[in-house]
Structures are given as structure tokens and as C-alpha cells.
Amino acid sequence: DIQMTQSPSSVSASVGDRVTITCRASQGISSWLAWYQQKPGKAPKLLIYGASSLQSGVPSRFSGSGSGTDFTLTISSLQPEDFATYYCQQANSFPWTFGQGTKVEIK
Amino acid sequence: EVQLLESGGGLVQPGGSLRLSCAASGFTFNSDAMSWVRQAPGKGLECVSVISGSGGSTYYSDPVKGRFTISRDNSKNTLYLQMNSLRAEDTAVYYCAKAGEGSGWKRFFDYWGQGTLVTVSS
Hey, what's the torsion of the CAs at B108, B87, B15, B35, to 10 degrees? Predict the structure, then answer.
């Protein structure tokens, strides 16, 4: 199985901050990576797919980059509605696996 | 508007069975792979099963292989998960997810249901 490791596990930030979350795959996955946002008690929401493609309706302050084994999700200017947990997911091979999550908290 | 509505969750004893359903609308159901993704309380996400648009191909994660069966009725736009021999570690919110973005068997989950809670306990 491909292991997905996110860092940090949590980050405290203020509104307006730039936030970067990284995801590392245990083996190369090309660009078969997605990022999801999950708020408490809600289903995850797709933000980025194919490592860098913005899902329709997602604000442009979210961006993704990387390929192979190392990937990054960046929130350019954190907004109050962005406080949530973020997960990466690889779709290169079964089982499709997720990172353990990164919680973005209010500083 | 894409909608996915799960049902069938509840409390079941270890060793028992449960059948989850997911009613889909707002897209051409038979065109997309579908999946069940679960989340144990306070934990991360785990993809437990995937089925192709036609229903002819399926995938199961190792923890559920041989106990869970995924199926779909394209005439009813409904996805199912038959869960047998349930264990305490199967306790989770089960999400129905549309695996629409991607190609072939490399897919991402573009729409999710609200989830249904399955609790396995005596």
C-alpha cells in the first residue's frame, strides 16, 4: 500500500496568513493526488485534484503543487471559513489512501 | 445538482449484518465509479470499496474483503454496501462518494453524501 504522510499534523494561524501543508507519498504517484477539506460533522469536500487542478467553485486562494512523491497545498490568505482539517489522497493505485490529516486552527 | 443520500446505518451487535444504501441524483449515475469511504470516530478517512459505473468491477480494502459486498442498481440510481460479520472496528461514519474526477481506476472523490453512522457494539 502507498502510505501518505502529511505535515504538520496541526497548524495555528491567523486570518490573512499564508498556510502551507505538505503531503509525502511512500512511492511515486505522478500527479494522482487530491486535497480535501473537512469541517466538523460534515463530509469532506474536494479542493484540488490532479495535484494542481482547482475543483469548480473552490476559491482561488487554494492552490496545489508537486508531483512524484512530494506535494503541497497552499492557502494564500487564510479566511475564517478555512479553519478545518485537510486531507491528501492518492489515486495512483489501490488501495486509494489518505493522509492522516492536518488541522488548521485559529491562533 | 448532484445529491447523494445515504441510509441504513444504526447499531448492530458484533457478528451482525447491515445494508447501507446511497440514493444518487443530479448526474448520469451509470457513467461514474462509486465508492464507500469510512471514518472512525475522531480518525481519518479510509476507502473501503469501489465499484465501476457498469458494476462489473469492484475493489475492497483488506480489512473488509470477504465480509463486505458493494453493488449498484443503475436502474434505481442506488449504490449499496452489504456488511456482514461486523466487528467493533467497523464502527464509523460511512460516506457514499462519487469517484468522478480522474481516469480509469485513478480517481478522486468529487461529491460526497452526508454520511451514515454504523455502530458495532453489544
Answer: 0
pLDDT at B103 over 90: no
All residues at 6 or more sequence positions from B15 whose CB lies less than 8 Å from its CB, including other chains: B85, B86
Nearest neighbour of B44 by CB, restricted to A45, A96, A101: A101
Is it the case that residue B5 has pLDDT exceeding 90?
yes
**Residue B101, pLDDT above cutoff 90:** no
Question: pLDDT (tens digit, 9 = 90+) per residue, B55-97?
Answer: 999 999 999 999 999 999 999 999 999 999 999 999 999 999 9
Residues of chain A with pLDDT under 50: none
> Under an 8 A CB cutoff, do A44 and B105 touch?
no
Q: Determine the 3-state secondary structure of A88 from DSSP.
A: strand
Q: And the C-alpha cell for B25?
A: 441524483
Q: Is B114 in the A-facing interface, judged by CB distances under 8 Å?
A: yes
| Ramachandran region, residue A41 (left: φ > 0; alpha: ψ -120 to 50; beta: rest) | left
For A98, which of B44, B107, B114 is closest by C-beta distance?
B44
Amino acid at B56: G
Q: Which residues of A touch B104 (CB under 8 A)?
A: none
